[in-house]
């Protein structure tokens, strides 16, 4: 017999009382003040948003159409900067690396978070608050500090290599951040460690809202722990998953401090990412136009991916 | 509804067109009208200039650097009470990032410390934002006190295209030289004499290796450290003038030569023979030299900037030497240059006062103040008393190499992108992801693309 459960969001919607429908038809508009007044309420927040977010964004798009060194008069470049982002092997690779990091920053933490959260949620752990704090702690520490700490851990004479040597795996030791095959995963793992706590806490909160009776019903129907997880827990936290994914994916795509502090994009160009390229082009090489172009492209990618995530999240939740 | 949307689209499109018409930097671009003064128009009597306020941006924030700067500023104020110094001091990284904006702003500083590189000083010269110091150099006699090889590292053609010759745009206070630090105590216990020639250096490396040591210390996670090792090895095979062409990014140089190939091959051989510490590409620069102070490795190829720290940690156990000369009796060739030169901005309100200040902080008396505070004075180095034994080595080495014209520029100065290309390419080379030929081709491409323009 199938376990039929319903997540809390699927409560029957309240139908509009007939009187309201009638009044709407009469005045040909919603009740209350005229619609345009609404814009006035939005205005203060919109102004701040426009000055600090929209204007810089438009200005970046504007600058991306120029060949400009930040000092002399720029020359109109049309879309050639965009062409360069697409054709330059190294810039293209940087977007590829960001996608790999997405796996480490978003997907792996999601899996880890789901497992951790459901374990913490199911077993009535003593001192749950303590564990929650510990798991969440990386989020509180500045990324620069984290990067420095992990640089030590990955160093040729660092913690990982000492442990490997201690258990007789000396042949496995290496300068992790300097190895061509391992540098990107090594950086990615720092992201996993960093984001898992956030995802876990988000999911824990979501799971806390699931009514107990759903689990009771599932158990009465003879569902085991796994069945319970897939039939009750997972569908109930879809919203939280969407939020977690959005946050972590954005974090992955805009990683700068981590790369800057650990590998500077090396070895070779193995770990360079778009944000790092923006910094390099603008501040080190003085190609402000190209830097803006990379920034704009990154914005578009982030926008597209988070759009898809929220869309999918919403649709599934409906 | 539909109509508003159309107007909106039209508005956005119109705004877009308007945007494309106004180029960035247009309102405040290069000031072509500002010509440099002729030598006889230069006023060197700072006391007669009236009340002036000079805003000075420097990056002398650490220990001895900070002390020499505040001492000199105080002395300058005492000597010229009519000139007020407004000092803005920030770390190197912050200075590099903010200078670009500061120079284009309305409230630009008068004297700035600008990095020698093309992406900084070169760009500022190109944009007409720095004052040509040639007239002042003649008036104050800088051209006599500062040797050509030192002036070159702060010289550009007036259009900013040629680096390493042309007009003087900045005056450095301190020198930098890359050489070989060695653990003298350890050499003695291993029974190795400090090498005098490259052959002896090779032999020392081999002996140390057979006695179970990784003789060379390198922390190359930051990418740039290997460039200094390569610079030293390159000086063994390639002529100084050829390296200068490559380092300054002047036309007529070539990376793909048998000499440079030999240099690259030498690095690869060192890796193959296990002369470097394990995992050097994943090793931090600072822990690497800190390990050296604790007795890891024999030789550390690095710059004079480590002198104070190494001396503090190792006392007399550590010594410094220039790389051996390419052949016996010749001049050692090594990477080096100056600290960040002080330049005068085109927007400075009183350029004579600014020049008087620059002259003061680079005067023979200033060199003494620099040395007293543990800095390596860029000129008259040999006459100064170094703070400690290691400092004496470094001062002597810099004096020799700058006088004998053996200083060659940092290789990453060549082009705006070379710092990154060189770092990544050498990581590739040392990790054996690229052969010496492939590595040199990559460097040649960066250099050729730039000089061919």
TrEMBL record, chain A:
<dbReference type="GO" id="GO:0005886">
    <property type="term" value="C:plasma membrane"/>
</dbReference>
<feature type="transmembrane region" description="Helical">
    <location>
        <begin position="95"/>
        <end position="117"/>
    </location>
</feature>
<feature type="transmembrane region" description="Helical">
    <location>
        <begin position="180"/>
        <end position="205"/>
    </location>
</feature>
<dbReference type="InterPro" id="IPR051393">
    <property type="entry name" value="ABC_transporter_permease"/>
</dbReference>
<protein>
    <submittedName>
        <fullName>Sugar ABC transporter permease</fullName>
    </submittedName>
</protein>
<feature type="transmembrane region" description="Helical">
    <location>
        <begin position="38"/>
        <end position="58"/>
    </location>
</feature>
<comment type="similarity">
    <text>Belongs to the binding-protein-dependent transport system permease family.</text>
</comment>
<keyword id="KW-1003">Cell membrane</keyword>
<keyword id="KW-1133">Transmembrane helix</keyword>
<dbReference type="Pfam" id="PF00528">
    <property type="entry name" value="BPD_transp_1"/>
</dbReference>
<feature type="domain" description="ABC transmembrane type-1">
    <location>
        <begin position="95"/>
        <end position="309"/>
    </location>
</feature>
<keyword id="KW-0472">Membrane</keyword>
<keyword id="KW-0813">Transport</keyword>
<feature type="transmembrane region" description="Helical">
    <location>
        <begin position="129"/>
        <end position="150"/>
    </location>
</feature>
<dbReference type="InterPro" id="IPR000515">
    <property type="entry name" value="MetI-like"/>
</dbReference>
<dbReference type="GO" id="GO:0055085">
    <property type="term" value="P:transmembrane transport"/>
</dbReference>
<feature type="transmembrane region" description="Helical">
    <location>
        <begin position="288"/>
        <end position="309"/>
    </location>
</feature>
<feature type="region of interest" description="Disordered">
    <location>
        <begin position="1"/>
        <end position="30"/>
    </location>
</feature>
<keyword id="KW-0812">Transmembrane</keyword>
<dbReference type="InterPro" id="IPR035906">
    <property type="entry name" value="MetI-like_sf"/>
</dbReference>
<feature type="compositionally biased region" description="Basic and acidic residues">
    <location>
        <begin position="7"/>
        <end position="23"/>
    </location>
</feature>
From TrEMBL, chain B:
<protein>
    <submittedName>
        <fullName>Sugar ABC transporter substrate-binding protein</fullName>
    </submittedName>
</protein>
<keyword id="KW-0732">Signal</keyword>
<feature type="region of interest" description="Disordered">
    <location>
        <begin position="24"/>
        <end position="45"/>
    </location>
</feature>
<dbReference type="InterPro" id="IPR006059">
    <property type="entry name" value="SBP"/>
</dbReference>
<dbReference type="InterPro" id="IPR050490">
    <property type="entry name" value="Bact_solute-bd_prot1"/>
</dbReference>
<feature type="signal peptide">
    <location>
        <begin position="1"/>
        <end position="23"/>
    </location>
</feature>
<dbReference type="Pfam" id="PF01547">
    <property type="entry name" value="SBP_bac_1"/>
</dbReference>
């Amino acid at each position: 017999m199938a376990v039929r459960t319903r997540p809390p969001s699927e409560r029957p919607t309240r139908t509009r009382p007939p009187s309201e429908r009638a009044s709407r038809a009469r005045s040909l508009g919603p009740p209350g003040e005229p619609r345009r007044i609404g814009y006035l309420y939005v205005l203060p927040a919109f102004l701040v948003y426009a000055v600090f977010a929209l204007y810089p964004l438009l200005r970046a798009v504007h600058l991306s159409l120029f060949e400009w060194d930040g000092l002399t008069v720029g020359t109109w470049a049309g879309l050639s900067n965009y062409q360069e982002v697409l054709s330059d092997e190294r810039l293209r690779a940087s977007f590829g690396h960001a996608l790999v990091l997405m796996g480490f920053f978003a997907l792996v933490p999601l899996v880890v978070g789901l497992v951790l959260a459901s374990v913490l949620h199911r077993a009535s752990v003593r001192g749950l608050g303590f564990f929650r704090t510990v798991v969440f702690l990386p989020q509180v520490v500045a990324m620069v500090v984290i990067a420095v700490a992990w640089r030590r851990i990955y160093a040729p004479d660092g913690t990982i290599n000492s442990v490997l040597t201690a258990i007789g795996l000396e042949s496995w030791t290496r300068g992790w951040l300097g190895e061509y095959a391992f540098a990107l995963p090594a950086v990615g793992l720092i992201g996993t460690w960093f984001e898992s706590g956030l995802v876990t806490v988000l999911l824990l909160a979501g799971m806390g809202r699931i009514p107990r009776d759903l689990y009771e019903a599932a158990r009465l129907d003879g569902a085991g722990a796994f069945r319970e997880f897939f039939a009750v827990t997972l569908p109930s936290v879809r919203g939280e998953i969407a939020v977690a994914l959005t946050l972590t994916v954005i974090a992955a795509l805009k990683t700068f401090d981590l790369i800057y502090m650990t590998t500077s994009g090396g070895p070779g160009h193995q770990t360079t990412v778009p944000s790092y390229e923006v910094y390099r082009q603008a501040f080190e090489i003085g190609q402000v136009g190209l830097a803006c172009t990379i920034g704009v492209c990154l914005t578009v990618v982030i926008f597209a991916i988070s759009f898809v995530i929220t869309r999918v999240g919403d649709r599934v939740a409906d | 509804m539909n109509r508003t949307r159309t107007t909106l689209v039209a508005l956005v499109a119109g705004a877009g067109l308007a945007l494309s018409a106004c180029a960035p930097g247009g309102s405040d671009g290069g000031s072509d009208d500002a010509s440099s003064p002729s030598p006889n128009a230069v006023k060197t009597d700072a006391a007669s200039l009236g009340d002036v306020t000079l805003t000075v941006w420097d990056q002398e924030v650490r220990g001895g650097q900070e002390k020499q700067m505040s001492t000199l500023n105080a002395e300058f104020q005492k000597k010229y009470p009519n000139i007020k110094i407004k000092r803005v001091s920030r770390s190197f990284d912050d200075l590099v990032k903010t200078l670009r904006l500061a120079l284009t702003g309305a409230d630009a500083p008068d004297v700035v410390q600008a990095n020698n590189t093309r992406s900084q000083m070169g760009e500022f010269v190109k944009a007409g934002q720095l004052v040509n110091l040639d007239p002042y150099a003649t008036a104050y006699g800088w051209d006599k006190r500062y040797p050509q090889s030192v002036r070159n590292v702060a010289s550009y053609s007036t259009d900013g295209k040629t680096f390493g010759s042309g007009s003087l745009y900045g005056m450095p206070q301190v020198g930098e030289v890359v050489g070989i630090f060695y653990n003298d105590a350890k050499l003695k216990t291993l029974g190795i004499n400090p090498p005098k020639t490259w052959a002896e250096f090779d032999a020392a490396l081999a002996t140390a290796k057979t006695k179970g040591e990784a003789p060379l210390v390198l922390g190359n996670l930051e990418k740039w450290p290997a460039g200094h090792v390569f610079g030293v090895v390159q000086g063994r095979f390639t002529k100084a003038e050829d390296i200068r062409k490559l380092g300054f990014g002047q036309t007529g140089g070539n990376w793909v030569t048998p000499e440079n190939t030999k240099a690259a091959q030498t690095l690869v051989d060192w890796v193959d023979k296990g002369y470097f510490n394990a995992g050097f590409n994943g090793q931090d620069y600072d822990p690497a030299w800190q390990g050296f102070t604790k007795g890891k490795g024999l030789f550390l190829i690095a710059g004079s900037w480590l002198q104070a720290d190494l001396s503090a940690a190792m006392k007399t156990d550590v010594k410094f030497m220039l790389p051996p000369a390419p052949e016996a009796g010749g001049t050692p060739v090594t990477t080096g240059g100056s600290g960040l030169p002080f330049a005068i901005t085109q927007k400075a309100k009183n350029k004579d006062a600014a020049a008087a200040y620059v002259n003061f902080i680079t005067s023979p008396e200033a060199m003494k103040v620099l040395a007293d505070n543990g800095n390596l004075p860029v000129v008259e180095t040999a006459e100064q008393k170094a703070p400690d034994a290691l400092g004496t080595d470094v001062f002597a080495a810099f004096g020799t190499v700058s006088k004998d014209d053996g200083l060659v520029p940092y290789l990453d100065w060549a082009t705006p992108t070379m710092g990154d290309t060189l770092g990544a390419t050498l990581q590739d080379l040392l990790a054996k992801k690229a052969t010496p030929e492939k590595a040199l081709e990559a460097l040649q491409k960066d250099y050729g693309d730039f000089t061919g323009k």
